[in-house]
């Protein structure tokens, strides 16, 4: 059990850094970034970070790894067909529900 | 696509009638996004509960941070008892994409827009809200931004609260199913662009494999999850930036964002982008 002080300090750091990242460029940037390496790095970061956080974590989030794997495949296939946020999130959810009905 | 400067400046000048409309339009466009947030935040709430947070703490985090991946990473670190410095670095890395979005938004703000609007709009940058705001023609309207945030981020906070409260009274079957909605949301951000950008596709696959290797190999077993995320992001995104730099063309991020919006709204007009 973590102390409340530690948790609130952690939340404060999370909030402060989250806002700083969003506000500092808007507050100070008057000119566009021109360095193509920095530009490219910032462009690639979200994809890599989110992909790293998704796999293999998704297969440990469910009751059996197989249902998580099915959710991953469903999400990827729908994404490749260009489905939106809500359909993909709900379909992954439904896929696990159905898969675990048979698996668990 | 963009209105001329004088046209938008004139539009911006008529604050009172336009603002009400803009807020309502934003609220309307934010609602379907909010439904997705509600489901994803529910699983985030479960993660918060597992990390030992109370419903008040997790809801506060969602109201203040507005970030799925960032909050998830933060909760994981708090659960592990990580140092505040480590939390700061991981939040910076997981939210680093907002630096780019903030840069892009700064280019679309009227020069005479008051500083309070600029700073308030910065608070409401999320992947999806950024996308629908940038898809509007002309200068960004702060009231549209507030409207879109009012519906979507309220549902985000509500979902987090419900997940933390109800996460343990729901049957395992449902918890298990809800837990993947967060990952579904991540997939909805990273997979659709793969269709138009092979480099991104390759990066996603390399990231999956790298992340899996890190989780399996004995030598990495002592490194925390957050540090693994940082290392892999710096390695893979940094390597890709060196190999495939991108020309700083103003339109590039915007094109990507607009295609995101169409996907976020899941309208049938998607193919027209």
Short summary:
The complex is a heterodimer of chains A (104) and B (273). Chain A is 80% helix and 0% strand.
Written as H for each helix and E for each strand, in order along the chain, the element string of chain B is HHHHHHHHHHHHH
Query: Helix- and strand-based class of chain A?
Result: mainly alpha
Principal-axes geometry of chain B comes out as globular
| Largest sheet geometry of chain B | none
Secondary structure category of chain B: mainly alpha
Rounded average pLDDT of chain B: 81
Order of helices and strands of chain A: HHHHH
> What's the total count of β strands of chain B?
0
Q: Rg of chain A to the nearest angstrom?
A: 19 Å
Please tell me about this protein's structure:
The complex is a heterodimer of chains A (104) and B (273). Chain A is mostly helical and 104 residues long. Chain A has two domains: 1-30; 34-103, no CATH class. Chain A has five helices and no strands. Chain B is an all-alpha fold and 273 residues long. Chain B is built from 13 helices and no strands. Chain B has helices spanning 5-13, 15-50, 55-65, 68-79, 84-94, 97-106, 115-123, 127-134, 142-166, 172-190, 198-216, 225-243, 250-265. In chain B, helix 8 (127-134) crosses helix 13 (250-265) and helix 11 (198-216) runs antiparallel to helix 12. The longest helix of chain B has 36 residues, at 15-50. Chain B is globular. Chain B starts with a helix and ends in an 8-residue tail after the last helix. The relative contact order of chain B is 0.15.
Task: Outline the fold blueprint.
The complex is a heterodimer of chains A (104) and B (273).
Chain A: H1 4-28, H2 36-54, H3 57-60, H4 65-80, H5 85-103
Helix pairs in contact in A: 4-5
Chain B: H1 5-13, H2 15-50, H3 55-65, H4 68-79, H5 84-94, H6 97-106, H7 115-123, H8 127-134, H9 142-166, H10 172-190, H11 198-216, H12 225-243, H13 250-265
Helix pairs in contact in B: 2-3, 2-4, 2-8, 2-9, 2-10, 3-9, 4-5, 5-12, 8-13, 11-12
């Amino acid at each position: 059990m973590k102390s409340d002080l530690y948790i609130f300090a952690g939340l404060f750091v999370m909030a402060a850094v989250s806002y700083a990242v969003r506000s500092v460029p808007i507050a100070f940037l008057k000119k566009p970034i021109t360095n193509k390496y920095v530009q490219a790095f910032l462009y690639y970061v979200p994809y890599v970070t989110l992909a790293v956080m998704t796999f293999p974590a998704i297969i440990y989030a469910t009751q059996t790894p197989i249902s998580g794997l099915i959710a991953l495949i469903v999400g990827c296939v729908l994404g490749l067909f260009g489905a939106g946020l809500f359909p993909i999130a709900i379909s992954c959810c439904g896929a696990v529900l159905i898969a675990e009905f048979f698996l668990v | 696509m963009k209105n001329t400067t004088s046209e938008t400046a004139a539009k911006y000048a008529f604050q009172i009638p336009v603002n009400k409309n803009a807020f309502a339009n934003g609220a309307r466009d934010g609602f379907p996004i909010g439904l997705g947030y509600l489901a994803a935040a529910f699983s985030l709430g479960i993660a918060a509960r597992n990390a030992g947070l109370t419903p008040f703490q997790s809801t506060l985090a969602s109201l203040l941070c507005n970030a799925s991946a960032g909050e998830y990473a933060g909760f994981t670190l708090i659960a592990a008892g990580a140092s505040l410095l480590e939390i700061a670095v991981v939040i910076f890395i997981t939210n680093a994409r907002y630096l780019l979005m903030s840069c892009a938004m700064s280019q679309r703000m009227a020069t005479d827009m008051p500083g309070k609007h600029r700073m308030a709009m910065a608070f409401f940058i999320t992947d999806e809200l950024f996308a629908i705001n940038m898809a509007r023609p002309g200068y960004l309207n702060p009231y549209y931004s507030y409207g879109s945030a009012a519906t979507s981020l309220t549902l985000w906070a509500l979902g987090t609260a419900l997940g933390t409260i109800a996460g343990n009274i729901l049957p395992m079957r449902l918890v298990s199913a809800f837990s993947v909605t967060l990952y579904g949301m991540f997939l909805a951000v990273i997979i659709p662009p793969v269709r138009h950008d092979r480099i991104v596709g390759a990066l996603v696959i390399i990231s999956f494999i790298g992340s899996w290797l890190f989780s399996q190999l004995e030598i990495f077993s002592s490194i925390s999850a957050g540090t693994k995320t940082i290392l892999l992001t710096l390695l893979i995104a940094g390597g890709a930036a060196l190999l495939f730099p991108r020309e700083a063309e103003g339109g590039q991020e915007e094109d990507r964002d607009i295609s995101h919006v169409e996907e976020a709204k899941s309208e049938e007009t998607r193919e027209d982008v």
